[in-house]
User: Fold this.
Amino acid sequence: MKRVIFAASMLAISFTLMSCGGEKKPQGDPDLIKVAIDETFKPVMEEEMHQFNLKYPEATFKYYYCSESEALQMLLDDSVRSCLATRQLSDKEKAALQARSLNVMTERIATDGIALIVNRSNPDTLISTNDVFRIVTGQVTRWEQIKYAHQSGEIQLVFDNTQSSTVRYVEDSICGGKALKGNVYAQKSNEAVIDYITSNPKAIGIIGVDWLRNENDSTNLSFLPKIRVMSVSNSSIPEVDNSYKPFQAYIALGNYPYVRAVYYMTTDPLMQGKARYFYHFLAEQKGQLIITKSSQLLPWMQVQFKEVNIK
Assistant:
């Protein structure tokens, strides 16, 4: 059970949930880990923090789930000393930290897949990368404009929020640096994207794959049953044999096209502080095993895959 820290409390406790933009607290406690987390990775990070706290019960997390841009800004403002994001700091940002006598340590911990999801009633679960490009750049706004599609009507393109790492990825890596266009609808969270898709048969949701994990499947070979995850093909005509879903194995083999790195950063100067311990925990065997077994992300540490039939 997660417990909340009160100002007058002298108890040794585990977690405090705060919203982004909370007031700045002293940074000298070696057991305190203040971390801003891209909300895209909330599912796996909850498990990572829980397991770390079992190993180090004296550690106290203060964590902030927010957009990637907010998380990085909190690190740059020294409101937190740790951050999870899908990009590294620029040289200019590192210089700004160094001007405040802060040096950032960065570790790649995983590879994420960006998934396309549709309603359970939508018959179209195969799509080409070319048609994804045409949709996100506004060239295609109706299902009838996709020659192999069976669905009809206006395509509603749904994502979490305008400041999210998912939107940044789509604009930078799929749109070629241009803004999203078409019938675009912003929600406030990844949960809201899933909810929108479950009630809108003509919509396509763009979401980080870890939100789609089927917790009832210990093999990690299926997704949430209430939506359908599209298979993506580099071929102009997608077929079952040349299209792939964002499963860990297909990400590892390079079959799935929409992937990005996940980085954990810390500026905490305390060598024996729990912030440094957690930084190393995520990149080492225990933290990587959690990513392998308890998420849809691909761990950065090399893993072995067994051949199975994926439906």
